[in-house]
Amino acid sequence: QLLYGELAQGKKPRGRPKLRYKDTCKTSLSKCEVDVSTWEERAEDRTTWRTVVKEGTASLESSYRNKPVEKHQRQKENNRNAEC
């Protein structure tokens, strides 16, 4: 009964729960290929952290730049294969 009962006060909001700041940091760091399990310890040493972030953002930016080029090449190859 407790699991399926209604809330005593207020309403439960629709959709997914709101993200915490830490959750958004983890998402961003994982996109930059930074180990999310040890990032807090690495951030304590500023020089190491600065290089880790700089390398991670460089790899993320290069992958963003290469995606349209790779997509264009795949489409070009698909068009060539369709014509043959």
From TrEMBL:
Its domain of life? Eukaryota
Residue ranges for the region (Disordered) are 57-84
Residue ranges under compositional bias (Basic and acidic residues)? 67-84
Official protein name in the record: Uncharacterized protein
Q: Which organism is it from?
A: Octopus bimaculoides (California two-spotted octopus)
